[in-house]
Amino acid sequence: MASAHGSVKTCMSAKIFVDTNVMVYAYDRSEPEKQEKALQVLEFLAKRRIGAISAQVLTEFFVAVTRKIQQPLTAELAYQRVQNYLASWTVLDLTGLIIIEAARGVREYQLSYWDAQIWATARLNQINIVLSEDFNPGSTLEGVSFVNPFDGDFSLESVI
Questions:
Q1: Strand ranges, E, within 9-95
Q2: 51 - beta bridge partners?
Q3: Strand 90-92 to 6-7 pairing
Q4: Spatial distance between the Cα atoms of 83 and 142, rounded to a whole number of angstroms
Q5: What stretches of 49-139 show up as alpha helix (H) in DSSP?
Q6: Beta partners for 3?
Q7: Kind of pairing between the strands at 16-18 and 6-7
């Protein structure tokens, strides 16, 4: 799919989009229950090669783990983690089309811009599930469902 705004790369193997908060919890020792759940989710998706993240998520991840968690990672360690994610995960690019779609998400659905960009990236890359604690759990917006992996009854097997 291409337009004057840019192109969107579709990833047939990617089935689940992971939001920044899930990745950050994997490194946040101040939230041990969420840390363990995040590690389980990331490992499950990585082993099956069905997870996707975006350039936006990696950017937010680097800032959050070096500045916003109680025991931040060093810039060097965070840099290594970003390199590992780039090498082993499907990483979706930010395009002009995603930006305009995110703006539509803000206008039509009153999403925050950053949440709208997550939604737009998933939608335009034909990924129907977003794992995040930032959206209304169980809601679906134009074919994209939002699932909170930290809910007590969450099971990855039930969403794939």
A1: 16-18, 51-54, 90-92
A2: 16
A3: unpaired
A4: 32
A5: 55-63, 75-88, 96-109, 113-124
A6: 6
A7: unpaired
Place of tokens 């930010």: 94
| Residues 60, 85: Cα–Cα separation, whole Å | 13
pLDDT in tens, the chain (160 residues): 333 333 334 455 889 999 999 999 999 999 999 999 999 999 999 999 999 999 999 999 999 999 999 999 999 999 999 999 999 999 999 999 999 999 999 999 999 999 999 999 999 999 999 999 998 878 999 999 999 999 988 888 888 7
List C-alpha distances in Å: 119 to 69, 113, 155.
25, 10, 21
Pairing label, strands 140-141, 144-147? antiparallel
* pTM for this model (two decimals): 0.89
